[in-house]
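One-letter codes give the sequence; the integers encode the fold. A sample entry reads:
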Amino acid sequence: MRKILVPIDSTEYDYTFRAVEVAIEVASSCGGDEDPELILLHVLRSMSGLPENLMEKEKELEKRRVNGEFENIKDLCEEEGIRNVKTVIKDRNSQSKGEVDYHIIRTAQEENVDLIVIGSGRIHDGSLGGRIKKAMYGSVTEKVLHEAPCSILIARI
């Protein structure tokens, strides 16, 4: 296992933190001459519809929050002897398609990863409308599972 991609939404929600723990376990157990590379990916929230000045402020706040989470994850990795950690932030509002699953799959292709470790996801909005929306549009995890160019490990608590 040379490269492991871990999509990060927020380590406080979903099963993202569990995915991080599992990815660290997998990377720690990889033997060989080369240290595996852990690639942490975050896709910025879509901010379409916001005024330009507010959009930029919101992006900067989200980037700051995510970079803080990346640093915490790097510290965990360091404790486990994993030093080869790369961070990637993608912008949903940029050029091509903007869906999170698209950016995860695209990053896996670009980085030539061997494994994606992803949280199983869960409904943020437990209302009937939230459940219907998830049923209609599917989850990011499910879309990645069916379209990824490599193996997938789904982490649950």
User: Anything to note?
Assistant: Residues 15 and 119 are 4 Å apart (CA to CA). The helical segments are 16-29, 52-79, 100-111, 128-137, 140-147. The domain at 3-155 is CATH 3.40.50.620 (Rossmann fold).
